[in-house]
């Protein structure tokens, strides 16, 4: 008998419609122009574009479009938590925007001090970098033979929301598309 132990879950849903996506795209571009601290942090950390990750922690209070998105994400996180068998309701802890230019990437990382992390895709030009998830057993496999799904790659599209447990290592691959890839990342505690 073979049993499956400790599966890794990825929550995926299409939640966008044109109007909120257009409002969020406009807000992201305005933030990228107005947020001097965010632009400075992005330059200092060689982020190929702009992120509000280290500069703004109150987007739902600043902009009704982010407040509406926060409510929607909270409902989806509650659904995901139930699917994971958790009795605890996740609480939105942080939300930040990303404007990634062509060729930009984000190296492999996890989100410590969170329970659920995710990304909502706003604008995704053709050829934008995909998100890639790493098998959490990879650093422990030692002499194990290669597996076909050591990495799982998801192509982003406007309106797509992805959620995963925050310990799951992931990265944004470099894209070759022209234009800016707009997304909103978040953590739940």
Explain what this protein looks like in three dimensions.
This protein is of the alpha+beta class. It has one domain (10-188): Jelly Rolls, CATH 2.60.120.620. The protein has four helices and ten strands. It has helices at residues 18-34, 36-44, 59-62, 64-83; strands at residues 10-14, 49-51, 92-100, 106-109, 116-123, 131-134, 151-154, 160-165, 170-172, 181-188. The strands form two sheets. A six-stranded antiparallel β-sheet has the order 1-8-5-10-3-2. Strands 4-9-6-7 form a four-stranded antiparallel β-sheet, with no helix packed on it. The radius of gyration is 17 Å and the shape is globular. The mean pLDDT is 94.
The average pLDDT is 94
The largest beta-sheet arranges its strands as: 1-8-5-10-3-2
Per CATH, the class reads Mainly Beta
* SSE series: EHHEHHEEEEEEEE
Please give the alpha-carbon distance between the first and last residues: 37 Å
Number of strands: 10
Gyration radius from CA atoms, angstroms: 17 Å
Structural class: alpha+beta
- If helices are DSSP runs of H or I spanning 4 or more residues, what is the number of helices? 4
Q: Looking at CATH, which topology would you report?
A: Jelly Rolls
The CATH superfamily appears as q2cbj1_9rhob like domain
- What's the number of domains? 1
Assign an overall shape.
Answer: globular
Named CATH architecture: Sandwich
């Amino acid at each position: 008998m073979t049993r499956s132990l400790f599966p890794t879950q990825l929550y995926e849903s299409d939640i966008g419609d044109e109007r909120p996506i257009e409002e969020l795209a406009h807000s992201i571009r305005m933030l990228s122009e107005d947020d001097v601290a965010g632009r400075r942090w992005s330059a200092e950390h060689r982020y190929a574009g702009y992120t509000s990750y280290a500069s703004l922690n109150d987007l739902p209070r600043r902009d009704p479009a982010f407040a509406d998105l926060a409510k929607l994400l909270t409902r989806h996180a509650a659904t995901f938590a139930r699917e994971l068998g958790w009795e605890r309701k996740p609480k939105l802890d942080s939300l930040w925007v990303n404007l990634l230019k062509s060729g930009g990437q984000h190296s492999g990382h996890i989100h410590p001090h969170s329970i659920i992390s995710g990304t909502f895709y706003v604008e995704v030009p053709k050829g934008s970098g995909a998100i890639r998830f790493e098998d959490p057993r990879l650093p422990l496999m030692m002499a194990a033979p290669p597996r076909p799904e050591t990495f799982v790659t998801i192509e982003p599209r406007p309106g797509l929301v992805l959620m995963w447990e925050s310990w799951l290592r992931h990265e944004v691959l470099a894209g070759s598309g022209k234009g800016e890839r707009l997304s909103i990342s978040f953590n739940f505690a």
